[in-house]
Amino acid sequence: MLALQALLACWGCLLPDGTPAGLFAFDALTACWFLIWTFGLLSRHPQLSGATELFGGLGLLCHETAYAVICMTLCLAFWQRSRPNGIHPHGQNPHGQRPDNGHSGGWRLGLFAPAGCAAVALPSIPSLLGFGAVPGLAMLPALSEFPILAWSLFVPPLLVMKGMTWPLILIASGTVVTLLAPSRYARQAWPVLLLGLTLAARAGGLPDTALAGGEALVLALALEAMGRHGWSLLFHIPLPPLAGFLPLWLGLHVVNGLCSLSPAWTAGGMMLGLAIGLIMLRGWKTGWDRLAAGAGAGAGAGTGAEAGRNAAGSVSALTLGLILSVCPGLLIGLVHPALLRLSDAGPDIWRSWPIWSIAGGDGTFWYPAAIFLLPALLAPAILGTLPASLPPFPRWPVSSGLSSPALRLPWAMRRPVVLLRRRYAGTVALGHRGATARAFAKTIARAGVILWIVVLAMALAWLGWTS
């Protein structure tokens, strides 16, 4: 069923116009949400109940807001019923959050119900059309477990609004929450900042920059749909060329593009660039802290059907994470009609599927396939020093029963790796030197600062040379 659902979503993404069929409509933007929802169902751990999946999908397909709100309310109710008191039926809390106090269903439904009613009523009141995005902001925390459902109701009202008011509100609120809120709330506000940048470029008449912002938004939502458990957490870390770095890189270049609008954006662009750098460092440290602390150590645990579901979810998350890291253009090319609608650009803006290179909106490009070689060469230097509490690496279905090939490199290629391992052996060798996981996380965070400074310096040098 998930395979058929994925095929349906891919077919809908390529439709040029909407195809209403009674209560349902399947245009490019709806198909984009539906495809990301399918990503979440493929890699979510543990899996959701059938009723939750059914009503969530129906809510995405309903083109009438009232019917969509009813289906999403039922989806939230069935999800809450399957995990009383905030504890999942399998006895795990896969998102690393503290158990709820038994009233979590009350506050989620109590927040979503009036927000949904407001989303239905506001379009019929002309004097309140400017507040059409307020219910969507309330839905984001209510549907924090299923953010794509909230985004399907949050984005359409913003696309019909003019001016810079709402883009600036989204940029300011997304920046503040992402920098200051706890990590589980900060990661939900990061796409809000990207949406604000996209709408600002759209309002300023910069279709290329708005297209890059839409690409960053879709990639961030696809990553969030994958969840943050087991090995999928690794792909959220903003380290080139992992998928978590690409929305930050695109967001930084969207800011550079916005600086060309007017001199008033210059100071704001500098502050936003600094904020994105701080967001990257926070994401780097948070991700490695969770890895070092053994977050997701239970992935792949259990027996029988539960172990099979966990292993399947880990392999799916690993596969999707690698695809989004090495060739994110597969997803971007598939949903490009939705991106053109987000950026308010014509089909002439879209040139071809960017399988390996992605434009940043300001004349720069990103080549993840080529840059992936650098971490691949450095991986042997750090893989042996990872904490022992990391989840086990899932076996690929195609490699079952096959032995791993031994790759013998010449000494000239192995020598830098050996020297690098010797350099860090006294600092991050957790098993042999007795260092703690906290020391490992501190070392990785320090390396992240250095990496960000190097990347920023290279970007500034390139912009100075091209100007």
Fold and architecture overview:
With 467 residues, the chain is mostly helical. Among the domains are: 1-14 and 25-41, no CATH class; 133-285, no CATH class; 436-466. The chain has helices at residues 2-13, 28-43, 50-61, 65-81, 104-121, 134-142, 147-159, 165-180, 183-203, 207-226, 245-258, 264-292, 304-326, 329-334, 336-343, 368-371, 373-383, 411-428, 430-433, 437-466, and strands at 358-359, 365-366. The protein has a two-stranded antiparallel sheet. The relative contact order is 0.09.
Question: In a few lines, what is going on in this structure?
Answer:
It is built from 20 helices and two strands. With 467 residues, the chain is mainly alpha-helical.
Observed structural traits:
467 residues, mainly alpha, two-stranded antiparallel sheet, 20 helices
Order of helices and strands: HHHHHHHHHHHHHHHEEHHHHH
Strand order of the biggest β-sheet: 1-2
Please mark out the parts with pLDDT under 50 across 5 or more consecutive residues, or reply none: 85-104, 295-303, 395-405, 426-434
Helices and strands: which structural class? mainly alpha
Largest sheet: 2 strands, antiparallel
How many angstroms separate the termini? 53 Å
Total number of β-strand segments? 2
Rg over alpha carbons: 22 Å
Shape: globular
Mean pLDDT: 75
Strand content: under 5%
How helix-rich are the residues, as a percent range? 55-70%
Helix count, per DSSP?
A: 20
